[in-house]
């Protein structure tokens, strides 16, 4: 029997906040080891590094591409939180609106220069939750209002509702990685990284198709004909539900944590590639292609599917406002919606990402004996501090809805111990996104932080997007 958790999961997945993993502040921050995860071919101007366990990289970003989707618009004062979905729907979102959520905790990160000084080896492990959803406009409309969205007692006959709008995925992974960076010559640096993925949990629904519409046969005892036509809608889950008891809890915490360390059988592979090229003394070009890979989920599986059907009933679909889940659950129990469950393995293909940048360096001479953070090649004179400006581009290839961003930046070595970067980003989430990153070093100890969308930070409950990042390392020259 399908329990209410099944339908709850579909709507939690499709309508919760879920972002592109564009770390535009960190990208190009050559002196930080974490930049190697964005571009394994970045220039490495240190001999070894050790990330502080569990604190070397903490990252969170979330948001919606629709500027009206804010906390205050969804969770309104004096209303029950159960009204959040209806408040969201009242904002008039379309299938082109997307939601995002990304979270990372770096468990450990280590790097060292090999005997051949042209090579730098880095490896580590991090935990990641990656979520994405397009807004399933027709799906939400039929869920909230059924066949009578106007609530006037006159159902819409032959009104088509498309299943193609349903497009979402979320995974929690343990990522074990090792990368090799090579300084080919004074101009070119290349790098690659291999990732072994351990799947803790996953949900995915994509490549859906089909339509639903209401027909009418006034001469029949059951005059309302519910047509599920060419339906191919599937929600795959792994690690969350027990197929034989769908009322069970949504994943035991100990089970979810153990899933990060290859203890449940869901595994995958991915790879990253990158380069840096010093065109001349002042101009530098970089690029990377990351997250080419897949994960096969094969533990604690539950697959929920809609299939083709023609169902005659005495009445049309009309959920009770505020009690929609119970309404659809009762229809499923009565067999009046074609919803089936099974256990099926599934493969999730990761969303590949492209980063690229061009940078112009300007050096100024200082009296300092050494520049602790020099954002230039290792053989440049150490009595120079560097300021840089340039442009970065980012693309993430999500199903049906690719995401993009263009960033202008200015970075500056303020002192021997402090480096800062200011960014201005235009993407699907904001046209006024100003970010700030800073890196501080005291002897070998390094602390860095990055904040995005600073203009919205003072009133974050009215912001549609936010991003935070910080970390601590020990870096040795």
Q: Helices and strands in order, then pairings?
A:
Elements: H1 4-15, E1 48-51, E2 58-64, H2 71-74, H3 84-89, E3 98-113, E4 119-134, H4 137-145, E5 161-162, E6 168-183, E7 188-205, E8 209-216, E9 224-238, H5 253-258, E10 267-278, E11 283-297, E12 301-306, E13 309-313, H6 324-333, E14 339-342, E15 346-349, E16 353-365, E17 384-396, E18 403-413, E19 418-427, E20 433-442, E21 445-452, E22 465-476
Secondary structure category: mainly beta
Number of helices: 6
Question: What percent of residues are in strands?
Answer: over 45%
Which geometry do the CA atoms define?
A: elongated
Tell me the CATH topology.
Porin
Termini separation comes to 62 Å
The CATH architecture term is Beta Barrel
Radius of gyration: 25 Å
Mean pLDDT: 87
Notes on the protein architecture:
The chain is mostly beta strands. The protein is built from 6 helices and 22 strands. The chain has a single domain, classed as Porin (Beta Barrel). The longest helix is centred in the first third of the chain and has 12 residues.
List keywords for this structure.
single chain, 477 residues, mainly beta, Porin, 22-stranded antiparallel sheet, disordered N terminus
Summarize the structure in short.
With 477 residues, this protein is mainly beta.
């Amino acid at each position: 029997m399908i329990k209410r958790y099944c339908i709850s999961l579909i709507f939690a997945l499709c309508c919760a906040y879920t972002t592109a993993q564009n770390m535009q502040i960190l990208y190009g921050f050559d002196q930080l080891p974490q930049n190697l995860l964005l571009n394994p071919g970045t220039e490495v101007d240190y001999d070894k590094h050790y990330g502080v366990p569990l604190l070397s990289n903490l990252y969170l970003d979330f948001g919606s591409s629709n500027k009206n989707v804010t906390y205050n618009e969804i969770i309104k004062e004096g209303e029950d939180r159960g009204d959040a979905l209806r408040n969201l729907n009242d904002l008039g979102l379309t299938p082109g609106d997307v939601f995002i959520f990304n979270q990372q905790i770096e468990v450990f990160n280590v790097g060292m220069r090999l005997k051949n000084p042209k090579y730098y080896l880095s490896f580590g492990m991090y935990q990641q939750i990656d979520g994405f959803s397009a807004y399933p406009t027709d799906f939400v409309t039929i869920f909230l209002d059924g066949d009578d969205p106007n609530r006037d007692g006159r159902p819409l006959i032959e009104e088509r509702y498309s299943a193609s709008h349903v497009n979402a995925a979320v995974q929690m992974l343990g990522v074990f990685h090792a990368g090799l960076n090579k300084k080919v010559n004074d101009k070119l640096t290349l790098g690659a990284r291999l990732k072994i993925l351990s799947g803790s949990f996953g949900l995915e629904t994509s490549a859906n198709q089909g339509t639903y519409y209401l027909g009418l046969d006034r001469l029949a005892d059951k005059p309302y004909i519910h047509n599920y036509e060419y339906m191919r809608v599937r929600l795959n889950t792994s690690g969350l539900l027990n197929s034989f008891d769908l009322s069970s809890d949504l994943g035991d915490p100990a089970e979810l944590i153990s899933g990060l360390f290859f203890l449940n059988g869901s595994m995958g592979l991915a790879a990253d590639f990158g380069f840096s090229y010093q065109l001349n003394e002042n101009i530098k070009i970089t690029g990377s292609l990351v997250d080419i890979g897949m994960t096969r989920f094969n533990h604690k599986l539950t697959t929920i599917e809609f299939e083709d059907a023609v169902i005659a009933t005495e009445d049309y679909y009309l959920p009770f406002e505020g009690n929609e889940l119970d309404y659809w659950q009762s229809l499923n129990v009565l067999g009046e919606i074609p919803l089936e469950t099974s256990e099926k393995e599934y493969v999730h293909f990761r969303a590949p990402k492209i980063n690229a940048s061009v940078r112009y360096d300007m050096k100024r001479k200082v009296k300092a004996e050494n520049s602790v953070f020099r954002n230039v090649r290792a053989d440049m004179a150490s009595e120079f501090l560097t300021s840089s400006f340039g442009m970065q581009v980012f693309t993430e290839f999500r199903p049906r809805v690719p995401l993009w961003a263009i960033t202008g930046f200015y970075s500056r070595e303020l002192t021997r111990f402090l480096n800062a970067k200011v960014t201005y980003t235009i993407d699907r989430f904001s046209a006024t996104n100003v970010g700030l990153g800073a890196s501080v070093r005291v002897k070998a100890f390094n602390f860095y932080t990055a904040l995005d969308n600073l203009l919205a930070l003072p009133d974050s409950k009215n912001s549609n997007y936010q991003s935070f990042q910080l970390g601590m390392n020990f870096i040795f020259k």
